[in-house]
């Protein structure tokens, strides 16, 4: 297929997964609105339908809780075929619509800025409406998920990288006694070898039950949840998003000082995510140690406008080790598994964020290389949820919204380069 046919195929995926005001990640496996998936979808839509892009973000923020938290799943229409559904989360009365009780990586402000920049006239009313909501969400992170300028997560799903090795020590420390009986639905759609294990799942559900027993109280969850890991992806994404929100503040004539303070705090805090080898990785706050891994999140430093010669050297290794980088776990490391979700496979969304950061920091050759290899992977293997980094074989769900969006907005030759 030439790239114009691929552009059309990617647009068709977005249209097919479109439910009116929001877009499913893919049918079957993920039948609701997911937080960061939607932000990527909006950026994809913005390549051919700006109104639809703004609608995606507006619908996403319609689920924001009064405390500022923006849930990771909005259960717009019940679907009994999904687990864990709203009955398991039991967040009734916490937000305006049924939702999960945790958040997800805050990429929305960055894409709101990019969509606004495409057409400021059309976008002005939209950013005026979204601005206070975005600030409230970022403030929630800075209040309840902030440890000395490192952003931590209280559940692996909050970080968006469900079974990343960054969480292993925190997960192993949990004994999931008392987890209610449940039936997984994900493995009915995708081969179990590509998904988290039962040991992971027991702990995912146990952690949901525990936060639920704390009444989803922000202070109690932040203090008492046994799973507390500072996350490079969360920290760099929020750092970047704060800068983008500050740019939107300027466009609107709003006060940006609070945002600038957060940016400064996170820029300093991010250095705490460097492990002994100089790589940014997960830091287990309860046990006080780093994971000692190189993941695709480690390469998001540039997206947060943080320079790192060490990570540039690691990137060259990733280019050498895998035909389709960036693997979510370093090839050859003990925890690498080419198929299992966030323990090896390449994710196009993370590649785009890494590529945007590389370009912003002047690493144009690396940005071009990453974009070219990502484009090749997609043109040979379609728009999958994730890919085997060694062979490019598609894995997980098919016809995936955010992968199609990344093609349209970044990887496709029509996107015009980084
Ligand atoms: C998986 C991913 C998460 C994503 C969701 C929907 O749980 O790990 O990042 O948001 O699927 O695509």
TrEMBL record:
It comes from the Bacteria. Residues 30-403 form the Mannosylglycerate hydrolase MGH1-like glycoside hydrolase domain. GO terms for biological process: oligosaccharide metabolic process; protein N-linked glycosylation. Keywords: Glycosidase, Hydrolase. This is Mannosylglycerate hydrolase MGH1-like glycoside hydrolase domain-containing protein. GO terms for molecular function: Glc3Man9GlcNAc2 oligosaccharide glucosidase activity. Belongs to the glycosyl hydrolase 63 family. InterPro entries: 6-hairpin_glycosidase_sf, 6hp_glycosidase-like_sf, Glycoside_hydrolase_63, MGH1-like_GH.
């Amino acid at each position: 297929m030439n790239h114009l046919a691929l552009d059309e195929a990617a647009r068709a995926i977005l249209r097919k997964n479109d439910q009116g005001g929001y877009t499913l990640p893919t049918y079957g496996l993920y039948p609701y609105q997911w937080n960061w998936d939607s932000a990527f979808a909006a950026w994809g839509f913005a390549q051919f339908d700006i109104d639809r892009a703004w609608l995606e973000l507006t619908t996403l923020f319609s689920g924001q809780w009064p405390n500022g938290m923006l849930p990771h799943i909005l259960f717009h229409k019940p679907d009994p075929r999904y687990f864990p559904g709203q009955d398991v989360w039991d967040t009734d009365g916490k937000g305006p619509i049924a939702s999960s009780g945790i958040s997800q990586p805050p990429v929305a402000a960055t894409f709101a800025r990019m969509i606004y920049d495409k057409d400021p006239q059309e976008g002005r009313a939209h950013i005026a409406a979204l601005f206070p909501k975005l600030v409230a969400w970022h403030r929630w992170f800075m209040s309840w998920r902030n440890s000395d300028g490192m952003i931590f997560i209280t559940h692996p799903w909050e970080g968006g990288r469900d079974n990343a090795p960054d969480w292993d020590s925190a997960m192993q420390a949990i004994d999931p006694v008392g987890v209610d009986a449940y039936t997984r639905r994900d493995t009915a759609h995708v081969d179990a070898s590509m998904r988290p294990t039962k040991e992971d799942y027991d702990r995912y559900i146990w952690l949901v039950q525990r936060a639920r027993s704390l009444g989803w109280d922000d202070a109690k969850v932040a203090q008492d949840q046994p799973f507390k890991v500072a996350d490079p992806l969360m920290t760099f994404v929020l750092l970047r998003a704060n800068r983008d929100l500050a740019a939107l503040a300027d466009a609107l004539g709003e006060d940006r000082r609070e945002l600038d303070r957060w940016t400064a705090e996170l820029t300093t805090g991010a250095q705490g995510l460097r492990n002994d080898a100089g790589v940014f990785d997960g830091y287990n706050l309860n046990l006080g140690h780093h994971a000692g891994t190189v993941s695709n999140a480690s390469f998001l430093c540039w997206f947060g406008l943080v320079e790192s010669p060490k990570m540039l050297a690691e990137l060259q290794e990733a280019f050498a080790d895998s035909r389709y980088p960036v693997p979510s776990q370093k090839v050859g490391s003990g925890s690498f598994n080419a198929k299992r979700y966030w323990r090896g496979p390449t994710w196009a969304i993370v590649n785009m964020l890494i590529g945007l950061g590389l370009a912003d920091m002047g690493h144009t050759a690396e940005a071009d290389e990453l974009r070219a290899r990502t484009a090749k992977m997609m043109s040979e293997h379609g728009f999958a949820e994730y890919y085997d980094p060694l062979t490019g074989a598609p894995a997980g769900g098919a016809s995936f919204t955010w992968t199609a969006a990344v093609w349209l907005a970044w990887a496709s030759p029509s996107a015009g380069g980084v």
